[in-house]
Amino acid sequence: MTPFIFAFKLLIAVPVAIVLAMTSIWYIWESDNVVLYDSFAQKMFAGIENYGLLAIPLFMLTGELMNEGGMTKRLIDAARVFVGGFRGGLAYINLLANMFMAAIIGSAPAQIAVMSRAMVPTMEKEGYDRGFAAASTAAGGLLAPVIPPSMIFVIYGVLAQVPIGDMFLAGIVPGLILVVMFATVITLIGLKQDFPRGTWMRPTEAGMALLRCLPAALIPLAIIGGILFGIATPTESAAVASLIAFLVGWLVYRELDPKSLFSIFQRTAINASMIIFMIAAASVFGWVVIYEALPQKLAALITAITDNPFLFLLIVNLILLFVGMLIDGIAAVILITPILLPIAMNSYDISPFQFGVVICLNLVLGLLTPPVGIGLYIAASMGDTSAGRILRSLWPFLIAVAVVLVMLSYFPSLSLALI
Amino acid sequence: MLKRISAGWARIELAVAACLALGVTLLILLNVVTRSWGAALYWVDELAIYTMVWMTFLGASAAIHYGNAVAITILTDVLPPALKWGAAKLVDLIIFAFALFLLWFCWRWFAPLGLVRAGFDVSAFQAETFNFIYAEPTLTLRIPKYLVWLVMWLFALGATLHSLAHLLDFSSEREAPETP
């Protein structure tokens, strides 16, 4: 009975957090464990008493601050210095700028929104097809949750009880592979489509662009450096990054008005609380998962099919591609991790880091696939084009991600090299 | 009337949540600074976590008012208007039921009547109910933990208020209140 009620509530658009909580309440009632109600509220509270989760509001704050502070423009200019002269230069600039941005912003929808607004009109002005411009920007947004910092990795790390700093490290190599794959896709499309020619900047211009971007470049340095060298926890580096973003936007670029801080903090508070509240609800939902012995039942089913970890990951990938089409990435990770991670670790001996990278990348891919592709719709509305037109140019990128997913599933070392 | 109280209360919740988000940022920065001086303050981490938890529950309650929680709308988006309206009402009802449940859970957990019956004598209360909520300390802050847990009441009451206001709102076209 429980699964039907669960599915029904999800489908009539009850908020995911409430679905999790009400399913738990229903299950406790049905199984006559009413004494669990006494500790229900406490359990919800305890589920988010977690140091790692502090990083979520802080990374969101950093993103908001750099949006308001004019940092995006400078990063794009700096990317122009390195790849601007190639044929189709702007397409590579887009990719490279997305890579820089991914080291600052931790969420794909946020990054797609920022970058589409900045890149799509510029690319179209230089003669690119608008659908392709929006598609390459949307694909670039997928780097955000893989290259650290990453909101979805913070959440996965908390759920899987692995150090978030290590989870971030696990994402670096896969992120770089994605960049190379996307660059290859752009080159291949360029062979067919004949991109406009780019121009190299004059040395003085290039120097100025790099100089102007320097303060903004402090942010990814603070975040990745702090974590990589173990100086700061991800939470601390997020706080430092938000301070830098504020100071640079306010004092150096002079685009951030301290008066807008209150609304920035309001947006941060409400967006962060929606996600953290889902985790609180998921922690009581954990009861249902444990008492119903869902992982064990599912494990018995899957181990009967295969005992090969690679095949297992392929099956998981197929299932999750479907799940990701229907459910938002972060919500899906919160739903899926408690069920599938125990199977991956106990029955197949898969490292939680590798598993995390694979399922997170897979589920954020869902942001770009219809029918529930938030990223796709954001790119469409910000880039002023239709989702269908973006999809026509997007599919090679989606295939590239699928190839990366298979690679990550087959070679654990790609995720584990830096840990 | 109820609608206006709900909107006003959501604004307060959101304003407080914004201040708490600022608080989280400042506390973590304080931590970075004091640690680099080699004089880390041991209570900052715990305080920052509680600040975040308060922010979360106040923000989540406000999110019920603003109706912008994460939900799957793939099916409801294509329903005809009448069915869509019915589904939305059903969702309001489920959220309201959840809020009432949570109030009940808080009641069972804090057991205010039991405490009164024991004459506010915590040890007598514990001897009778085996409920140790009022004895639990925080790890580093030196305040009893039930004070921190009180946010669950705020959340339960806020969620009840906002969901009831939605539930009783029978206008055919509900405008979602603008999030700031």
- Mean pLDDT of chain B comes to 88
Oligomer: heterodimer
**What is the number of strand segments of chain A?**
0
Give the termini separation of chain B: 22 Å
Query: Which series of helices and strands of chain A comes N to C?
Result: HHHHHHHHHHHHHHHHHHHH
* Helicity of chain B, as a percent range: 55-70%
Written as H for each helix and E for each strand, in order along the chain, the element string of chain B is HHHHHHH
Number of domains of chain A: 1
- Summarize the biggest pleated sheet of chain A: none
Radius of gyration of chain B: 20 Å
**Would you report the number of β strands of chain B?**
0
Low-confidence regions of chain B: none
- How far apart are the first and last residues' alpha carbons of chain A, in Å? 43 Å
Describe the structure.
The complex is a heterodimer of chains A (419) and B (180). With 419 residues, chain A is mainly α. Chain A has one domain. Helices cover 77% and strands 0% of the residues of chain A. The model of chain A has no long low-confidence stretch (mean pLDDT 87). In chain B, α1 (2-36) runs antiparallel to α7, α2 (44-66) packs parallel to α7 (151-167) and α3 (81-110) runs antiparallel to α7 (151-167). Chain B is mainly α. Chain B starts with a helix and ends in a 13-residue tail after the last helix. Chain B is flat and about 60 Å long.
Please outline what is shown here.
The complex is a heterodimer of chains A (419) and B (180). Chain A is mainly α and 419 residues long.
Helix-strand layout with pairing:
The complex is a heterodimer of chains A (419) and B (180).
Chain A: H1 2-11, H2 16-30, H3 40-47, H4 55-68, H5 71-83, H6 89-102, H7 108-125, H8 130-141, H9 151-160, H10 164-193, H11 203-228, H12 234-252, H13 261-291, H14 294-305, H15 309-326, H16 329-348, H17 352-365, H18 374-382, H19 387-410, H20 413-416
Helix pairs in contact in A: 1-2, 2-13, 3-13, 4-12, 4-13, 5-6, 5-11, 6-7, 6-8, 6-10, 7-8, 7-18, 8-18, 8-19, 9-16, 9-17, 10-17, 10-19, 11-12, 13-16, 14-16, 15-16, 15-17, 15-19, 16-17, 17-19
Chain B: H1 2-36, H2 44-66, H3 81-110, H4 112-117, H5 122-129, H6 145-149, H7 151-167
Helix pairs in contact in B: 1-2, 1-7, 2-7, 3-7
